Amino acid sequence: MLMERNGDDAVFGHFGAVAGYALAARRAMHTFRTGPETWKHIAVGQRKWANLNPSATMYDRPMSFEDYYNARWIIEPFRLFDTCLMTDGGRAIIITSAERARDLRHPPVLIMGLGQHNPSIDVHQATHLTGPTGAKKAGEMALAMAGITLKDVDACEIYDCFTYTVEITLQDYGFFGPGEGEDWFKNGTIEPGGKMPVNTSGGQLSEAYYMGLTPLSEAAMQLMGRCGERQLGPATKTKTPEIILCSDNGGILQTHSCIILRRS
Fold it and tell me: What is the tens place of the pLDDT at every residue in 14-61?
């Protein structure tokens, strides 16, 4: 069964999504000098959001940089806290017309823009593992449809199967350039009180892993004002959000979707 799913890779001990992303991250460490010094800010920053979210798996488990570095290896260069949770459960999002939504209990959230790009069907032939991933074109399409720029985005809910995925996605969207991730993330950029909140539920790293529904449902709830102690705005010393950008990706950075939501 292993050989059927992984072909010749298994012969060399390489199989599974963690190994695939680990190779991409290792290449990124060489190409633009990223690594744990950048990823620790993502892991710890998202954990701070989870500590404000009673529904999060890691709600009552604060994390320091020391905790991050002391965690066991999963597959180098990923430590335990670089990798997403494994979660049983469910989420649901209801999509209807804007006209119908006006009569519902909660204020509606509107879809501004959508984009998708699938740069490779075979990761072995891919040339995009350190960027640009599908995020670049998908983000450009979504922003063009929405008629906005990144300067109009108040927060991001990013598919975070690994810390590196958050970095490369935001990089390819254009929030910072190759090799600039560490400077962009440090000093609490994505944390409560930061200038660009990211994964405000704790994300898949610290809240729960429900694939693309974790970022999408969190964005909708934030724009509805339903997030309690972690609500963006005065409670978390952040801007009250009008526009939130969300992402989802599949394979080993082979396919990407971007959706931009706004408050009604």
Answer: 667 898 899 899 999 999 999 999 999 999 999 999 999 999 999 999
Q: How far apart are CA 143 and CA 146, in angstroms?
A: 5
Residue 236 is encoded by which pair of tokens?
């978390």
- In the chain, where are the structural domains located? 2-263
Of 149, 144, 143, 185, give the one whose Cα is nearest residue 164. Answer: 185
| Rounded CA separation 77/21 (Å) | 10
Report the alpha-carbon angle 32-38-44, nearest 5. Answer: 160
Q: How many other CB atoms sit within 10 Å of the CB of residue 252?
A: 22
Instruction: Count CB-CB contacts under 10 A for residue 27.
Output: 12
Helix (H, G, I), strand (E, B) or coil at 248: strand
Angle at 76 between CA 70 and CA 80, to 5 degrees: 45
What is the Cα 153 distance to its own chain's centre? 15
Per residue in 104-134, pLDDT tens? 888 999 999 999 999 876 666 666 677 789 9
pTM: 0.94
Residues 213, 217, 221, CA angle at the centre, nearest 5°? 175
What residue type is assigned to position 78 of the chain? F
Of 45, 107, 127, 23, give the one whose Cα is nearest residue 15.
23
SS3 124: helix
Active site residues: 159, 209
2-263 to CATH, choices 3.40.50.720, 3.40.640.10, 3.40.47.10, 3.40.50.12780: 3.40.47.10
Residue 11 amino acid letter? V
CB hemisphere CA count around 240 (13 angstroms): 5
